[in-house]
């Protein structure tokens, strides 16, 4: 059994499509960019936004920074409430806690937003620590968030063995961030990644649903 379970937020714990995509559409509109098919913006869900604005819409570094600010104008007041819970996840948290697992959030989303979302969904009580990125970019990669989370656990309980930790996420960024610390990963296929994406980054486990995720964690 994995004692410490790190979970991504968007696309893993929550269904974030409405809030994130609406925020991206709002930001892009400020640059005169219109998008007919919102599903083409799904790659924005997961990685740091400033990177996505540059990669997917060719914004300069300065423009991408401004786009993130526009995005936050929308997200901080509306988007954080446009979230749902992924099927089976709350029941999964209950089972894992009953079996003695400690649950943590490790997200590239700003920590403030992550805490507000989980509180709104009444899920915050399941997690020992909710770790996310910072607005000042001092902690804006998944690896940096995991490092911060590990330090928090060490301060609270002593340094954990990496063999006791599993990272659960729906994108390759979760796998890459966890691998920097020798942490195994579960790629969930109910989010915004794909089996091909996980195979390309050598994700150890794949889960079609929350029940399979639990089975892997409690192996």
Please explain how this structure is put together.
By secondary structure, this protein is an alpha/beta fold. The protein is 43% helix and 16% strand. The protein contains nine helices and eight strands. It has helices at residues 17-29, 49-57, 61-75, 89-98, 111-120, 142-157, 172-179, 195-200, 210-217, and strands spanning 4-7, 14-15, 84-85, 102-110, 129-133, 165-169, 184-188, 205-207. It has a six-stranded parallel β-sheet, with helices on both faces. α1 packs across α3, α2 (49-57) crosses α3 and α4 (89-98) packs parallel to α9 (210-217). The radius of gyration is 17 Å and the shape is globular. The protein starts with a strand and ends with a helix. The mean pLDDT is 96.
Number of helices: 9
What portion of residues belong to β-strands?
Answer: 15-25%
What share of the residues lie within helices?
40-55%
End-to-end Cα distance, whole Å, is 5 Å
- How many strand units? 8
Spatial strand sequence of the major β-sheet: 5-4-1-6-7-8
Q: What profile does the largest beta sheet have?
A: 6 strands, parallel
Choose one word for the global shape.
globular
Q: Work out the radius of gyration.
A: 17 Å
**Element order: H for helix, E for strand:** EEHHHEHEHEHEHEHEH
The parts where pLDDT drops under 50 for at least 5 residues are none
What is the typical, i.e. mean, pLDDT? Answer: 96
- What class do helices, strands and sheet pairing give? alpha/beta
Protein name: HAD hydrolase-like protein
Pfam families: HAD_2
Organism: Coprococcus hominis (ex Arizal et al. 2022)
């Amino acid at each position: 059994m994995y004692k410490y379970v790190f979970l991504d937020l968007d696309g893993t714990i929550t269904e974030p499509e409405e809030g994130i995509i609406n925020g991206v559409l709002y930001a892009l509109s400020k640059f005169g960019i219109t998008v007919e098919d919102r599903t083409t913006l799904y790659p924005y869900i997961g990685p740091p936004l400033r990177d996505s604005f540059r990669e997917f819409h060719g914004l300069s570094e300065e423009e991408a920074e401004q786009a993130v600010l526009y995005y936050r104008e929308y997200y901080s007041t509306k988007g954080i409430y446009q979230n749902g819970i992924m099927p089976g996840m709350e029941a999964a948290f209950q089972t894992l806690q009953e079996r003695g697992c400690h649950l943590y959030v490790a997200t590239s989303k700003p920590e403030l937003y992550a805490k507000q979302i989980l509180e709104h969904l009444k899920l915050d009580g399941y997690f020992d620590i909710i770790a996310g990125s910072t607005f000042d970019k001092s902690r804006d990669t998944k690896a940096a968030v995991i490092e911060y989370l590990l330090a928090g656990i060490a301060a609270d309980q002593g340094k954990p063995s990496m063999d006791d930790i599993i990272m659960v996420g729906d994108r390759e960024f979760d796998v890459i961030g966890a691998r920097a610390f020798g942490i195994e990963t579960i790629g969930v296929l109910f989010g915004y990644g794909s089996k091909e994406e996980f195979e390309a980054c050598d994700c150890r486990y794949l889960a079609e649903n929350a029940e399979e995720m639990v089975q892997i964690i409690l192996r």
